[in-house]
Write a structure and sequence with these properties.
single chain; 160 residues; 4-stranded mixed sheet; 11% strand; globular
Length: 160
């Protein structure tokens, strides 16, 4: 009998806007070689919590029209929601269940595969597991913009 890890500790990578992209195929290839599960987050799932997307115990679907897979039928997504989904245009990678060693190994394997950096990425924590995907996306975007401004200020101050 195989030694299996409990589901709650299973390493999972949530991927948003990677479907049908070369970087998505590379990323899932690296993950598969390491035994890490990749799961695509669809636009109609951005209002779900990270815990729900990861199917963690105690988390339920937010959408009453969602089926057991967590996906709402396209006809149930109104025009207003379609516009809201279009706001989230960048690729995001969210990692769950990694030890520090495995996280470093995963990121190192991505670099070895020649993959470009993914600016919007995060680890699921006890603090953000209850956040919706959208809320985490917006926070990652704010943090990335702040870091870019700091880098730009540093470059400008170094030139003086």
């Amino acid at each position: 009998m195989k030694n299996r890890r409990p589901v709650k500790n299973r390493e999972i990578v949530l991927l948003y806007r990677f479907r049908d992209t070369e970087i998505g195929r590379q990323l899932c290839g690296v993950a598969a070689r390491m035994g890490i599960m990749c799961k695509v987050v669809e636009e109609n799932q951005t209002e779900e919590t990270l815990g729900t997307l990861l199917k963690l115990p105690g988390f339920a679907l937010a959408g009453h029209a969602a089926d057991e897979t967590g996906e709402q039928p396209p006809e149930e997504i109104g025009q207003v929601n379609q516009e809201k989904y279009q706001e989230l245009t960048r690729q995001v990678m969210i990692m769950h269940g990694f030890t520090n060693r495995r996280l470093e190994e995963f990121l190192q394997n991505m670099r070895r595969a020649g993959m470009p950096s993914i600016p919007l990425k995060a680890i699921v924590t006890p603090q953000n597991v209850n956040w919706t995907f959208r809320a985490l996306y917006k926070e990652l975007e704010r943090e990335h913009e702040a870091m870019q401004k700091l880098k730009q200020q540093k470059v400008q101050s170094d030139q003086v």
